[in-house]
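User: I've been going back and forth on whether these two constructs are worth ordering. Before I decide, could you fold them both?

Assistant: Sure. I'll take them in the order you sent them. The first construct and its structure tokens:
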Amino acid sequence: MQFDFRALDGTGKLQSGTLEAAAQAQVVEALQAKGWVPMEIAPSGDGSVHGIGWNWRKARNRVRLPELVAFTEQLSTLLSAGQPLDRALGILHDAGGNPALTAAVGEVRDQVRGGSALSDALGRHPQMFSSMYCAMVRAGEAGGVLPQVLARLAEHLARSSEFRRNVINALVYPVILLATVLLSMAFLLAYVVPQFADMYANLHAELPWFSKIVLGLGMAVRRWWMVIAGIVFAALLVFNFWLKQPASKRLVEQRLLSTRWIGPLLAKMEAERYLRTLATLLASGVHLVQGLRISRAVLSNGQFLDSAARVDDLVRSGTRFSDAWSSEPYFPRLPLQMARIGEEAGELDRMLLKASDTLAADIRTRLDRVLAALVPAVTVLMFALIGAVVMSILVPLYDLTSVIG
């Protein structure tokens, strides 16, 4: 059976391809043997890795972050209470919940009973348990502090989930408002405006230039709405395909990072995830070099991935973490100053965690400011557009009533 995969190689570059194996676990083992970090693995032909668009199997088998947090917290609690690992996994399996997670926990339990380490059993399910997750579990097993490490991991995942939820919640109202604007304009142009256009045509009324433009646009929307919708849909597909190309994606990422207002915010969001992951790994006993390699998996921006790969090489050659990142132009400066203090005091993990908290607070403040300005701007835009359409209809009507009167 063939499997498509995406993985980070030893230099941090994203690799993809196809491997022949009897099961997904063998693909994971083959990639890990090469020193690669599996990112996504799926049977060839189902579209999960290389395909474009929605994949129903992947959506059905998806494990949400809050569910993973709950599983990690419960496993930590059971182990802290003195339950054997296989029995704790059996209790969580019998508790049910997400079918995909329940099935994975059952397989992990069986592998642990067969003599596998928990980290190795979890590593056979890379779509649910990331390389960071497995690395922390492995460090907890080696140090004999697995319950404590799982509790720290659950806290890290919970913070990441809360941060993501706050960002999404903050964007909900502006998105709804913008959708309302678009739907209102579509209704006015497709239904209301053509009614008045037919009336003015029957009256042979002389219309102002802006009324002619709006009425002509409304008639075009009514007559050709299917063609317009098809063109828009095709344009979105083409843009989506173009955006998936590596060169195009890198170009967009570089432009966004260079933008005055958006760039610093995106950079801080990337740095916050990266530093929090690295701090959690270091606090769990993972070596800095290994932690740097694993932390690259949380980066989504190609510019940052390239920078992280260069930093890894510098740290391996003896350069301090803070000095290695200081030469990268997009990385925020304040966390590096805090990291330098942590290196000098021998508390790099604690200072990186504080730096990520500082970045998270600054991101929330910036998002609040952006949204505070965005909502009034969208509201003004809505009233301006709708007002222009309404005025283009009512002004000729007012002129006609004046003439008749």
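The second construct, handled the same way:
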Amino acid sequence: MSADEPIFHVSNSMEFFGRLIANYPEFWRKVGNLETKLLADQLENNELKSPVYVTGLARSGSTILLETLAQIPGVVSHRYKDFPPVYTPYWWNWFMNQAGAGAGKPQERAHRDGIMVTPDSPEAIEEVIWIGAFNQLHNPAVSNALTAAAANPEFDRFYREHLKKLLLSRGGSRYLSKGNYLVTRLQYILNMLPDARFVIPVRHPFGHIASLMKQHDLFSRGQQNNLRAREHLKRVGHLEFGLDRTPINTGDNITTQSILKLWDSGEEVRGWARYWNQVYGFLADQMLENPLVGNASKVIRFEDLCATPADTIRAMLSHCDYPAEPEFISSVAAGIHAPSYYTSRFTEQDEAIILEETASAREKLGYTD
């Protein structure tokens, strides 16, 4: 057994119930609809006000931003403990409360990046619902982008009601989400929720790609001889790293296939750099070409977050229309710093490749080196 395999332990109960729910999305949507019907009176006056979505490539600082925003009073997000029974948030929360489930002891998450989590920590869980409704979202052979033209009224209704039930179950007023794959769904989300706000973390490709490669190596080692872990990550929609690594196809089939070929041939640096350029170039173009997306989006540069955390957090809170209490900002800012648990080991040739491959998106995002 690899020394890294234990960090991807999946319990028997998680394996069983994860399969039970992820493999039968139509059935569980019906159960979710029943839950909604029985809660109709309580949901009638619930308002979905300006939900906030944190979305960008993994390792861009998205978890720090998520955890910061999740501390705002009234803000509700999905949590680790919401999987597997994602489709029935109200009943599951009621059950957990009746069972007296505690928060659990904080543990470092599988990424080994110093971030401590419990079952109550906010996490990207809603991807399960998207996967159950749109079966091509993780197929790199086709575009994964969802626009307003791809509207699915049944899903839209279910999704809005799901968020209302989550707010109701936790006594909140604002929904908060993190999802790396939401980068190709901004137009779709705005069509459902016109007052949604997007926080888009980005990081200079030198540090970003170094972190992506580190995580990919860790996940790949941890998944060796661990089919259960691989299947679990597929079910929850986490294919950013590891043996089943799958790039997001933003609609450029040629570039996506070239990225896969680079990775298959062992050209990790060039593959990741081209992927970084594809995703962030797509986001930058969306913000420029679609005023609705542009106005709803706030780019947060990782370097700014580390260098001037208080100012960066204050600007993010303002964009999200969240209260910007000075004491809260100072408290959060004090714990933010540049990562120290690894260093980039790129050669001059590696850096030249990264600069070459990412030139277009870097320019659009204001990176000059």
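Notes on the second construct follow. The longest strand covers residues 197-202. The domain at 5-364 is CATH 3.40.50 (Rossmann fold).
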